[in-house]
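Retry 2 of 3 after timeout on previous attempt. Resubmitting structure tokens to design endpoint.
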């Protein structure tokens, strides 16, 4: 789909900058439009008042040095262009950041936070210790035990994708989007590697009730690792499932009511896993 910039300019004049910007950003968020549908130069000409003249002033070959993209000289408002161009670049970054190749990122839940490390309170699980209530006797009260986890300190990561006046004037949209995709891929890969380090136990950040624990334990308070269990046939899968079935909740002594649904293997074991799980 390609944008009709003449119609966009007309809607901009009729609806105003704020409403036009909102519509374009919503279309990008809903995937009605893709970043490749946009031209940075055409956007500038449509969304900046007297856009053609303004874009002409960005010509780096001009002897007066042109103008800054962020300038609003003589009351010129470039806000709408900056917002839409930023949303276009953001959409491209997000596409690369959440690509299908990043498997671990799709297996975990991302919880936004504004805090630099957080204590998440909970309630201690109740053990299966239920006495019979005799006729006429009141039901016993159920108390609450303290239970919490501490999340690690948060860290900020990111890059800036510059949109230069040369990129606008010469309409180097494809180069800007390529750099945006590279930024998204780098950030997504960094997150994927950090998640995999946690999954396989290279790093351990679990802290419960003030005590730090390794992800994998070979003894109390839980045992969740088999030291030698290479994936060869169904017996190796069975050994892992039996270990899973024997796991108990440290707080209640009852079985953990979570079942295994996903198997992660290295690429070298991909076909072995396919053979084992699809054997008849």
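Retry 2 succeeded. Sequence:
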């Amino acid at each position: 789909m390609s944008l009709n910039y003449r119609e966009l300019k007309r809607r901009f004049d009729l609806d105003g900058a704020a409403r036009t910007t909102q519509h374009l950003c919503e279309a990008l968020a809903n995937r009605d439009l893709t970043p490749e549908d946009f031209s940075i130069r055409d956007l500038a000409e449509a969304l900046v008042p007297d856009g053609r003249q303004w874009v002409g002033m960005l010509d780096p070959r001009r002897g007066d040095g042109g103008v800054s993209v962020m300038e609003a000289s003589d009351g010129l408002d470039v806000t709408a262009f900056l917002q839409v161009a930023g949303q276009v670049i953001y959409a491209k970054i997000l596409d690369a950041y959440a690509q299908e190749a990043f498997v671990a990122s799709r297996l975990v839940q991302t919880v936004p936070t504004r805090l630099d490390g957080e204590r998440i309170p909970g309630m201690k699980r109740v053990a299966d210790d239920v006495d019979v209530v005799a006729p006429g006797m009141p039901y016993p009260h159920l108390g609450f035990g303290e239970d919490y986890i501490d999340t690690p300190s948060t860290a900020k990561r990111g890059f800036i994708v510059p949109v230069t006046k040369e990129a606008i004037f010469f309409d180097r949209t494809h180069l800007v989007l390529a750099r945006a995709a590279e930024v998204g891929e780098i950030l997504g890969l960094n997150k994927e590697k950090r998640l995999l380090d946690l999954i396989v136990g290279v790093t351990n950040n679990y802290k419960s009730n003030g005590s730090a624990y390794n992800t994998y334990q070979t003894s109390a308070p839980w045992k969740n690792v088999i030291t030698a269990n290479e994936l060869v046939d169904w017996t190796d899968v069975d050994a892992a499932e039996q270990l899973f079935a024997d796991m108990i909740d440290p707080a209640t002594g009852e079985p953990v009511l979570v079942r295994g649904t996903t198997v992660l293997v290295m690429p070298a074991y991909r076909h072995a896993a396919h053979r084992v799980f699809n054997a008849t």
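Attempt log closed. Strands lie at 119-123, 146-150, 206-208, 211-213, 218-219, 222-223.
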